[in-house]
Amino acid sequence: MLTLKERTEFMQRLADEHPNPKSELNYTTPYELIVAVALSAQSTDKGVNIATAKLFPVANTPEKIAALGVDGIIPYIQTIGLYRSKAKHIVEMAEMILKDFGGKVPERFEDLIKLPGVGRKTANVVLNVAFHQPRIAVDTHIFRVCNRTDFAPGKTPDDVEDALYKQVPPQFLENAHHWILLHGRYICKARSPECERCPIAEFCNAPEKAERLNLDVSTKEIVATKATKAKKAPAKKSTAKAATKTTTKSAAKTAAKKAPAKKKVTAKA
After folding, report:
1. Active-site residue set
2. Which of the residues 107, 203, 206, 249 has an alpha carbon 20 to 30 A from that of 77?
3. pLDDT in tens, 33-47
4. Confidence (pTM)
């Protein structure tokens, strides 16, 4: 378990990487954000941004989404996964926002999770990003980073979220979601974590880190060694062998010449 000083340093290094973090989803209002986040389930932010770039100019309020209806929305979002169920959810969400919340996105967690298509993660993203509340939404990137580094381990996203509220120093809570997510998305990646450029590597004991760093170091050494040998070693080795062979042959010839001579003298004597 990291000490408070270490946890502060851990978060400060992530903060230094992204001094002004923000969501990578495109939006201009809390309602556009909640729609974008609802559409992002099992989809990339890039894919959602492509869809909302077509949808929002046509319908970006609860009134317009409800009027457009499911069949009217599908053509705009059919490039992303699960688009049929997502279209149904955002229409039902728009209708509930109009009916129960006066057309405005609610600012309480308990109200948000009542909306169709809105789970714990979506509610936390909206509260954090749109309303600047110190909430942490645990997605696949945050779940991976927290377990891989052992900073806030947990078996489920809810476990990790609870651990993060305890582990993250208060001054970092508002942007912790962004910092850890961006670190997981661009450095602590699932298949090829870039440990060699990780600012928090010293706090991590993951097997992937040892593997990655050992591979990186050995690769550099092998390349350097091969280059050196190619330039110097072969030439020296050949010269040494040639010299050895020449010396051996010369010695053998000399011995062969001298030995018979001595033998003849001895015979005469």
Report:
1. 121, 139
2. 107
3. 999 999 998 899 999
4. 0.76
